[in-house]
């Protein structure tokens, strides 16, 4: 088979990893400097935190691409279901679905490339559709696609309910997406409030530092001040991690 994408791996270029790391490191270094006013310490914290944040961002790109592919796959199943109910056999239904997908997505969309690959490997390589669907399921690491591939492997050429199964699978994916959207809508306000709470300590330090009069000198020049700043940054970091984790939804 040709070299097709593996969706559970990050597809960022090397320079993108470096750029994201640099931006995160500089940003965190700036925040740390507000609490310490010691360049080496601030830079060290920024360089260390940049590694974690870059990995976090890379993981978010994976999740975003998988989510997009899952939605596209739902549209693919819907188009296939219509074609099968119109009397087309499986392969013809895939071909009909590809035509529909090209009307909704551009040629570089993941689902378009995947369906084109399935047809190419089936027609030119003689590979069974069930094997090709299983390959997509393995590379996508998406539960709904794995479930469909497993079902198709069992019923291929053996059931006249293929159209019904397609429709039921598409409906299940749609219901799960609808639930996820409702949850996301519900917690949007809470996420905004959380981010504001994370920004507030930084704004307070900036404002108090700019007021002059040595108001923050104890924080920057004494051991107790450095200890307080360290505790504050640890709490800040843990709060950020918890906020990110709590916003990840799985249905």
Q: Strand-and-helix sequence, N→C?
A: HHHHHHHHH
Strand content: under 5%
Summed up, the helix count is: 9
Largest sheet: none
Round the Cα radius of gyration to an integer and report it. 25 Å
> What is the distance, rounded to the nearest whole angstrom, between the alpha carbons of the first and last residues?
32 Å
SSE class:
mainly alpha
Shape: elongated
User: Uncertain regions: pLDDT < 50 for 5+ in a row?
Assistant: none
Mean pLDDT: 85
Q: Helicity range of the residues?
A: over 70%
The beta-strand count equals: 0
Describe the structure.
There is one protein chain. This protein is mainly α and 251 residues long. The chain is built from 9 helices and no strands. It is elongated, with a radius of gyration of 25 Å. The mean pLDDT is 85.
Task: Throw out a few tags for this protein.
251 residues, mainly alpha, 80% helix, 0% strand, elongated
In short:
The protein has 251 residues and is mostly helical.
Note the topology:
Layout: H1 14-36, H2 39-85, H3 90-104, H4 110-123, H5 129-140, H6 143-155, H7 162-210, H8 217-221, H9 223-246
């Amino acid at each position: 088979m040709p070299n097709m994408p593996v969706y559970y791996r990050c597809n960022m270029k090397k320079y993108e990893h470096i750029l994201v790391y640099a931006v995160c490191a500089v940003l965190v270094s700036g925040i740390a400097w507000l609490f310490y006013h010691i360049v080496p310490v601030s830079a060290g914290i920024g360089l260390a935190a940049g590694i974690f944040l870059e990995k976090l961002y890379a993981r978010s790109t994976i999740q975003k691409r998988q989510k997009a592919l899952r939605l596209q796959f739902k549209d693919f199943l819907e188009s296939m279901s219509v074609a099968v109910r119109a009397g087309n056999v499986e392969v013809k239904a895939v071909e009909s679905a590809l035509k529909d997908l090209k009307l909704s997505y551009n040629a570089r969309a993941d689902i378009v490339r995947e369906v084109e690959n399935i047809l190419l490997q089936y027609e030119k390589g003689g590979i069974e559709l069930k094997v090709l669907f299983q390959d997509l399921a393995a590379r996508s690491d998406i539960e709904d696609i794995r479930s469909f591939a497993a079902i198709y492997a069992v019923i291929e050429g053996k059931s006249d309910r293929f159209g019904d199964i397609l429709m039921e699978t598409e409906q299940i994916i749609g219901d799960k997406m609808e639930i996820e959207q409702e949850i996301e809508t519900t917690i949007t306000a809470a996420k905004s409030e959380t981010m504001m709470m994370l920004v507030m300590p930084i704004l307070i330090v900036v404002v108090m530092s700019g007021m002059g009069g040595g108001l923050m000198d104890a924080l920057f020049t004494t051991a107790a001040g450095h200890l307080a700043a360290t505790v504050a940054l640890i709490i800040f970091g843990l709060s950020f991690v918890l906020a990110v984790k709590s916003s990840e939804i799985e249905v």
